[in-house]
Amino acid sequence: AAPPGGAIPGAVPLDQLPPIVPARDSGLASNDRGGTVPNLFLAHTQEGREGTTPEELISSMAGGQFSYNNYIDSNTGRVVVGVPRDRASVGTGGVNERAINTVFTGSTVDWTREEWLQRMPALQQFARLAAESGVPLVNIEGNTDPNAAGIGGHDWATAAGFPTDGHSDPGPNFPWDVVMGLAQQYRAGQDPGAAA
């Protein structure tokens, strides 16, 4: 587990993370949230070619029926916003109106914990976006309450009984302890990548 308020091993300083590329008209499916304030921040894997960039995935999804709010390059940590946070993307059946869906491009549920940790800038960006979203900093993994609020994965929605076609991403080896430690530090205004 990450030390509270201290540097997290492998984390890079905040000012060295790639900038977040704002949303543009990408042709991605989205819906009005109807006044619902998001209370879920959900992780997804692409299950595609390793090395896929956010732009490549957005381009392949344009005009289709699915989308994500944020596309994080698993290798570089570069973030491209596909669907603005004030709109609902279409990534998790049954909870899209209250979820901010975020995908790691070029990722798979089969990665080991070590493979995830080798992608620290991507994990940091996920944690940073989650911290900035206003969603409760509670890990809902393993929680089967369909009304839960917090940070989890597509697998949470499956366990909670939503129509997800059995999705299990981001997978059993996703380092939730590290991600939650990062998110807590970002929300507190700390830089987990700063030198001790």
Helical residues, percent:
10-25%
**Order of strands across the widest beta sheet?**
1-5-4-7-3-8
What proportion of the residues form beta strands (DSSP E)? Answer: 15-25%
Bulk shape:
globular
For the secondary structure, the number of strands is 8
Profile the largest sheet: 6 strands, mixed
> Between the first and last Cα atoms, what is the distance in angstroms?
17 Å
**Tally of individual helices:** 5
Low-confidence stretches: none
Going by helix content, strand content and strand pairing, the class is alpha/beta
Spell out the blueprint of helices and strands.
Elements: E1 20-21, E2 31-32, E3 40-45, H1 54-61, E4 70-73, E5 79-81, E6 87-88, E7 99-105, H2 113-117, H3 120-133, E8 150-153, H4 154-159, H5 176-187
Parallel strand pairs: 1-5, 3-7, 3-8, 4-7
Antiparallel strand pairs: 2-6, 4-5
Q: How would you describe the overall organization of this protein?
A:
The chain has 196 residues and is an alpha/beta fold. Helix content is 23%, strand content 15%. The strands form 2 sheets. It has a 6-stranded mixed β-sheet, sandwiched between helices. Strands 2-6 form a two-stranded antiparallel sheet. The longest helix is centred in the middle third of the chain and has 14 residues, at 120-133. The model has no long low-confidence stretch (mean pLDDT 93).
Highlighted features:
5 helices, alpha/beta, two-stranded antiparallel sheet, single chain, 6-stranded mixed β-sheet, 196 residues, globular
